[in-house]
Amino acid sequence: MPALFRFAPSPNGALHLGHALSALLNFEAAKQTDGRFRLRIEDIDTVRCTEDKITQMLDDLDWLGIRWEEPVMRQSERFAFYEDHLQDLKAKGLLYPSQASRKDIQRAVKEWETTAKSPWPRDPDGAVHYPRALLFEKEKDGGNAAWRLNMEKAQAAYSHPLFWQETGPLAPTYPQATQIAASPQEWGDVILARKDCPTSYHLSVVLDDAAQGITHVVRGQDLYAATSLHRLLQSLLDLPAPLYHHHRLLTDIGGQKLSKSRQSLSLRALRKDGVTPSQIKKLIRWSDADLEAFTAV
Ligand code: GLU
Of the candidates 3, 148, 193, 239, which lies 20 to 30 Å from 286 by C-alpha distance? Predict the structure, then answer.
């Protein structure tokens, strides 16, 4: 069975150098392992992800010399599929509806922290855990509700122990794979279906990696901690576990991670300035050492 890699950008902004590194790593790793390479457009946010941005994104990837298998998967066309699996989790009693707004959550946590004089738990991204116990919400499936995973119940339902194979530079035995113990409880009661759409990044990413037959998930280290949650969802949904490789992140001069929201220099802008694909490789400090962990399977 050939290895299957993917690049899964969210077209809510322009591709930047960090994306170029991620896409090239996946593409080159697929070549090096005689594997295959697929593309997936993660456009569940149908307001921010526009056709224009998608067209530009595909054009940038093509310009970089990246070639992918057709058809390109688009998450915005798969809402019914996500909904089905969401129903599965609901039927297992692992989800509950939640109407609280961001403001409600902030207020409840602030009040609690002031009284308790200690911090409320936070997830690895720094967001507060959903304070269900503080909100005394009625669990009613009314109109506009998000669906949250009941982490306590989910923990009881998954098959212990939960691990993933990591081949990225954070693995202590890099470039050899290391078995990493997953700790999904760090995330609290995450949202699996948003108020405005029947899924979330976490739910659709695990369903689609399985649907596309992905064997190697190669993505930035900013998603390392989320892998714990992805392994939990794979276990609850009976999905296979791919290998994970979380690659180095590019930073700007100030040492900050490149990101669309911080208006990092886009590939489009660099192209306009006459930068060539081989210069892009220099800018991302491309080195064959980046591919060391990928050997023919
Ligand atoms: N769509 C995500 C992003 O653009 C990446 C998802 C993944 O690689 O798992 O950040």
Answer: 3
